[in-house]
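Structure tokens please, single chain.
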Amino acid sequence: MEQHRKQLEDSGSHCVNQSNIELPWYSNIKYMLVGIVFGIVFVKAEIISWFRIHEMFRLDSFHMYGVIGTAVVVGMISVYVIKQFKIKTFEGETIVIPDKTFDKGQIFGGLIFGLGWAITGACPGPLYAQIGSGHTVIVVTLISAILGTWTYGKFRGKLPH
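Here you go.
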């Protein structure tokens, strides 16, 4: 496992938690079910609402800031608990959360991400919930997000990091 992690780090990959365990395809159904529940929560909490997102960017409402702030706090607590109690995956593998470093590329990436979010009213998490709710025009945003991810991967070595 350690040799595999070193190969990933040497290749410039950010994924240091890739599992070596081969599981059958149907073992991923649990993640699909969690995703469906997550999407329903997004819809009911109005997180996928274009109007709510634009309220946030116009500083007219606290709703989205409360949701994002809650997610940050839950994430911080989760990472602390995982590290403190050395939580393992369901398959018994160790979870490794490497320390993060700051670089100027995060500023540029954050600005591009925020601009796209403000223009489209969608970020990657709610895209699928928006499409599932019947907002089919968001397919254009999904395709753009996939294309943007591919473009980043293609030119990653030439970008400021």
